[in-house]
Design goal:
The chain has a nine-stranded parallel β-sheet with strand order 5-4-3-2-1-13-12-9-6, covered by helices on one side. Strands 7-8 form a two-stranded antiparallel ribbon. It folds into two domains: about 300 residues, TIM Barrel (Alpha-Beta Barrel), CATH 3.20.20; about 90 residues, Methane Monooxygenase Hydroxylase, Chain G, domain 1, CATH 1.20.58. About 35% of the residues lie in helices and about 10% in strands. The protein is an alpha/beta fold. The structure holds 2-acetamido-2-deoxy-beta-D-glucopyranose (4 copies).
């Protein structure tokens, strides 16, 4: 009997250890790419890397199908441009029926959260979503509650860390408060979240602290100490992540909910497109934050585990670069599911990242500047055209391809466009300025990529089926 007990006890402890190792760590899966990897391949990458939580930016069907039956916990999302629609309760109910209730079956999708909007209160949106966000949140949570899933599924609003701060004359975490222009709205929202036992979700970006401010003490963005910590009531803050998180804890406390659960919806470091965005700095950041998270130490004001979603899982070459030219390079994996650097995702010194399996590439063909081209007067124009439809951000100042000469610069742009166009020969002409080559024109620092064979979206697959069906109909009616 005691043997049995011991075995059961050992098994349970083992299970607990396995569970606690990955507790909290999730990833963001964005799909703004010209060539999307097969959702099933992406989900397999998550499993292979021990990731059991994912945050999405919509509730797209092919993504949801790939996640079905995996046991991965999912945060689906309602994009900002659909918030106004959700101010209508019957519309919100439809969303819940169509995108939540439908997946609730044995072998379905384990939805835990609904992200209502994405940083809707961002200062640069000039208040465009500030009136529609809270009503949408209420309608979605109420519709979830009405459908009987209120205990399991929580609606939350992923907010940028610019929704709170400390007064400029007293920049310490304990002085944290919600931004004055939305203060009362935030307090109301927090009250509603509390009534539903829902968490506050915040995106914290040490990289952006550095990007926005050349005087920002660089060590403070990382986790290996700083000679000038921020001292607050005897607490020493040595990194901006802790300081920022505790500023939110203080803002919640001031609103009357100092114990509200917090989810870090996004945190990460980009690897290209800016002088501070490179593999070395991303490596330093992740090597600092991952062991910290695995230790479950928490922050000075909130000791204990933190639920975190890394941003992001895979690069997205079609993301808007309005916020900055680093935007397409947040992935811990490249566009093709190859890891960018060794990373101990469990934070316990064991594993490096497992790459995607069975990814198919286009042929080994590149598009390059034609050295025999005579008339170069239209070169600039053609480069601009290529870069409007393809990702040229690695050419930017401080980026991986910034050192190229003028011809290689042109080649980079032409190749990027050629790959986006699935190596269509017509896409490698540029008024005679370009030519196809089978020579790998990459340099040691600058990778001239070959695109992957992307998946059809489910919509285009349906139209292919329809097309084939119509042809069959026509043929048989003759
Ligand atoms: C369900 O989610 C999809 C993908 O995000 C969205 O396009 C669609 O409008 C949603 N359906 C409803 C009924 O709201
Ligand atoms: C916000 O206002 C600024 C300045 O008036 C403007 O340049 C910007 O385009 C506006 N942004 C949005 C999203 O409306
Ligand atoms: C290459 O392109 C980048 C981005 O368009 C530009 O800033 C840089 O000056 C170009 N370099 C040369 C040598 O033409
Ligand atoms: C091209 O060369 C680069 C640098 O040597 C290498 O990393 C890359 O894998 C090569 N690409 C292909 C498709 O062989």
């Amino acid at each position: 009997m005691t043997v049995v007990k011991t075995v059961v006890w050992l098994l349970l402890t083992g299970l607990f250890l396995i569970w606690s190792e990955v507790e909290g760590l999730g990833v963001n899966w964005g799909t703004m790419a010209t060539h999307k990897m097969d959702p099933k391949t992406v989900v397999q990458m998550m499993k292979d890397n021990g990731i059991n939580k994912v945050k999405l930016f919509d509730a797209e069907q092919s993504t949801m199908s790939a996640l079905a039956g995996t046991g991965i916990e999912v945060m689906i999302a309602i994009p900002n441009d659909q918030l106004a629609d959700m101010n209508d309760y019957s519309r919100a109910k439809k969303f819940v029926q169509r995108n939540i209730t439908r997946y609730n079956f044995n072998g379905g999708v384990d939805i835990r959260y609904v992200a209502v909007g994405n940083e809707p209160f961002l200062t640069s949106y000039n208040g465009s979503f500030s009136e529609t966000t809270f009503p949408a949140l209420k309608n979605i949570q109420n519709a979830i509650n009405e459908a009987g899933f209120g205990d399991k599924i929580k609606a939350t609003v992923p907010s940028n860390a610019d929704v709170y701060g400390s007064p400029t004359d007293n920049q310490v975490p304990s002085a944290g408060t919600f931004r004055s222009d939305i203060h009362d709205k935030m307090v109301q929202m927090v009250q509603f979240l509390a009534q539903n036992n829902a968490p506050f979700t915040v995106n914290i970006y040490p990289f952006l602290s550095l990007y926005g401010n050349d005087n920002f003490p660089i060590d403070f963005a990382f986790f290996d100490g700083t000679p000038q910590p921020v001292v607050d009531n005897g607490i020493q803050y040595t990194n901006v992540f802790d300081a920022n998180y505790d500023t939110l804890v203080s803002a919640l406390k001031e609103a009357g909910y100092g114990d509200m659960p917090i989810i870090v919806g996004e945190v990460g470091w980009p690897t290209d497109g800016d002088k501070n965005a490179n593999i070395n700095m991303a490596y330093r950041f992740y090597n600092g934050i991952l062991p910290r998270l695995a230790s479950n130490k928490g922050t000075p004001l909130r000791p204990g585990p933190i639920e975190v979603y890394l941003f992001g899982f895979i690069d997205e070459d079609a993301k808007s670069i309005a916020p900055g030219t680093f935007e397409r390079h947040w992935g811990i994996f490249r566009y093709d599911g190859q890891p960018k650097f060794a990373m101990d995702i469990s934070g316990r010194g064991q594993s490096s990242l497992v790459p995607a399996q069975n990814v198919r590439y286009l042929e080994k063909r590149w598009c390059q500047f034609n050295p025999d081209a005579k008339d170069l007067s239209k070169l600039g124009e053609n480069i601009n055209y290529a870069c409007t439809y393809a990702d040229c951000t690695p050419l930017e100042y401080g980026s991986s391809c910034n050192g190229l000469d003028a011809n290689a610069n042109a080649s980079y742009a032409f190749n990027a466009y050629f790959q986006v166009q699935n190596q269509d020969e017509l896409a490698c002409n540029f008024q005679g300025l370009a030519m196809v080559t089978t020579q790998n024109i990459s340099t040691p620092t600058c990778s001239f990529n070959i695109q992957i064979v992307g998946t059809y979206s489910s919509a285009s697959r349906v139209s292919v089926y329809l097309f084939v069906y119509l042809i069959v109909l026509v043929v048989f009616s003759l």
